[in-house]
Known about the structure:
The complex is a heterodimer. By secondary structure, chain A is of the alpha+beta class. In chain A, 22% of the residues lie in helices and 31% in strands. In chain A, the strands form four sheets. Chain A has a six-stranded mixed β-sheet, with helices on both faces. A five-stranded antiparallel β-sheet of chain A has the order 13-17-14-15-16, with no helix packed on it. Chain A has a four-stranded antiparallel β-sheet with strand order 2-1-4-5, with helices on one face. Chain B has helices at 2-34, 37-45, 51-79, 86-98, 101-112, 117-125, 127-130, 135-159, 163-171, 176-205, 208-213, 220-247, 249-275. In chain B, α2 crosses α12, α3 (51-79) packs across α10 and α8 (135-159) crosses α10 (176-205). By secondary structure, chain B is mainly alpha-helical. Chains A and B meet through β6 and α5 of A and α9, α10 and α13 of B.
Amino acid sequence: xxPALLEADVTVARRTFDVVARVSLAPGKRLALFGTSGAGxxxxxxxxxxxxxxxxxxxxxxRKVVNAPPATWRALYPRGDRAGRRRSEPPVPFRHRGVAAVxxxxxxxxxxSVIENVGYGLxxxxxxxxxxxxxxxxDRVGLSDLRRAVPEALSGxxxxxxxxxxxxxxxxxxxxxxxxxxxxxxxxxxxLRDLAIDVTRRNGAVSVLVTHDLGEAQAFGDRIGxxxxxxxxxxxxxxxxARAPANRRxxxxxxxxxxxxxxxxxxxAFHPDRFAAGAYPERGIVVHGIVTAVRAFGxxxxxxxxxxxxxxxxxxxxxxxxxxxxxxxxSRLEVTATEPPLVARVAVEGDEEG
Amino acid sequence: MQRAIGRLxxxxxxxxxxxxxxxxxxxxxxxxxxxxxHQVRVxxxxxxxxxxxxxxxxxxxxxxxxxxxxxxxxxxLLARHRLPAPRIVEAGIVMPLLMPPLVIxxxxxxxxGQAGPVGRVVSGVDPNVFGVNTFFALVVAEFYEAAPxxxxxxAAALSTVDPRLExxxxxxxxxxxxxxxxxxxxLAAPGLAAGLAIAxxxxxxxxxxxxxxxxxxxGLPIRIDTSFxxxxxxxxxxxxxxxxxxxLPLPLIGLMWSARARGTRREFAAAAALAExxx
Lengths: 354, 279
């Protein structure tokens, strides 16, 4: 197994709660941190970049310390029980860290043009449009025509493109992307994401993406870390978490809407996308119900189904089933819940190891 | 009738503004009407008449340089909340503004005169260079009267620069000092210029503390005072004009440039805020 390139084990004190997390990534790996707003994703990624102070722990990138608790008089001159404890080495200066970051809200240098912003870290001679790889980078983020514009003349999406290009222009060991595409039009998000993945791979680096969009997290990450309340609730393969969320909160964040009692420790979780119309007993649990409402749902239809089974699943009612052809309201419908996973009622310590 | 009443507050506000403006600028107008070009030429043609001007310009330039070199790092630390007990530090910086200049002058005797322990050490090096009534004393007195204006406005200007931009510049490979020079300084320049402009005007016009510790070598304000006592108004006014001409253009240009730069930046900021993504 390759040794980890990025190793973070941090506690960051915040006003309302602490962010406590452990992240370890081998070269070339991409982690997507997924969770609702205020879950502590930005705090964690800023702690990894070393731009926010941590209260305990350490972040190492390529064996170099990039974040450690700030030196205090007590840490410098330990007394009593602290005397024996090893003091963390001071972090290396920002410029030697090999961290490239797109931050939220976007930070471009307001007094420099797009091309000066993107080329900021490249030193002299200052790159211009005649430089092949540099021009290609500007082209791939779609800013070739705007290279002389100043940031205030750009739209939010264009600013994010420029910030991404600036981060990718220099060699890096860790690429940290905090909601980098939130203002970018949906059609070009895929291209920018592929570009970021490409460059990360070429650098043999790791990357961490922060997003509250599950689709984006799944498209970007080899692994997904589900964050809530300052903790990583579960970390693992994207498909694995979707099919087997560790606990109720993770399941909710992944879109599971119905939960039925299983035993004292576990609930059975149901996802609207994992209900299929029709009876397939070999694929899961079949329930009988009556369609009470139908509405358009994207290109398909969402049916509200009142379960009239005598089983414990009746407590789920009403459930949402997405179908291709809308059935009549009032008609009977057999529904199969495909392999509904068992999830813990509450988070169990050690889950995040998963 | 109703419209007339509706306009009343506006009319009152405009008249008040005009009144304030006239009262503030009135003395300058009087100076320009009361003084004849002939009188100015005769006074300033006297041998050594321009000496005090050069003394003031040199002393103010040196005081200003000291302010920038010593005051900017202090202002930066204040702006970034990196100092212990910032309120106390701030109070200490503002203190010279709150104290009457004459009192500052008296207290400075302890610092550069033989009266205090610090002064004995300082002037012990060479009382003709570092003692009371030397060029050095003039610079120190001007520094005390002007430095707080620069430090306070510089701290305000530097605190408007997003510290994350400095971090970004460093993550992109720059040393802290380079990041400061390439990012923080250009962004804070309008505010720093405004602070420098005010400090320059204060230093050039410093009188109270200067009167006590640096009567000699006479700078322009002292020269105005002695001319006024010896020759009355007609003798003092040409020097007053000289002081205004020497002290004002630089600050005026600085302030106007700074106001313009800030105005455009404010528009930019508003545009940027609109463009900022939500969530």
